[in-house]
Amino acid sequence: MPAPSSSFSTVVPPDDDVESRQRFSEVLSDLSSRPSAAIRIGDVLEAFGDRAFGALMLLFAAPNVLPLPPGMSAVLGAPLLFVTAQLMLGRPTLWMPRFIRERSISRDFFTLLTTKLSPILHRTERFLRPRLGALLHPLPERIVGAVCLMLAIILFLPIPFGNMPPAFAISVFALGILERDGLATLIGWLAAIGSLLILAVISSAIFAGINAFLDQLWVILG
């Protein structure tokens, strides 16, 4: 791994030794219990190591399903774009520019996220296990990366309540990658299709509302 002063951080690719590792929820709890005032993105990278792709996707997507304070979506969104883009490109290792590694989340907010997500994660992790490995070969994972990148871009669009469905889909994909569970990946595909349909309906309603408003305005001014 490069020295902390280098521009990029590299994380080794995942292997098959999953039994002795901490679950995602356990690593998240360890991070939130640190005495530092803030949790750096670099700290998260180091904590998850060779599981960085799935772990970082889940960490930065799942909070978007919840109501967030102003500005937090920018902190969480930029790393998500980097991770999903590299997954799409089929990179065997994950790197982050220094300016993203140095971004931080306050420990109080990180602890709040952990408190809200942990019960859901604990219940979900009981059902996750390595299976349907053909769905997690390099090519299928690259396709998942492309879909997740598209969904991550949608997260930034100013669509009311439009960030929740794609964030949920990315989170499910991330769980599949993290635990090498092809069934979770299948559910992720269903969630992705469903989120796109929901966004299409929401967008149509917004455009219809705007057009109706403009029509009324034109009548009043005319």
From TrEMBL:
Q: What is this protein called?
A: Uncharacterized conserved protein
Keyword entries, A-Z? Membrane, Transmembrane, Transmembrane helix
Which Pfam families has this protein been placed in?
ExoD (PF06055)
Q: Transmembrane region positions?
A: 143-161, 186-214
The keyword Transmembrane appears for this protein: yes
UniProt superkingdom: Bacteria
Record the organism: Microvirga guangxiensis
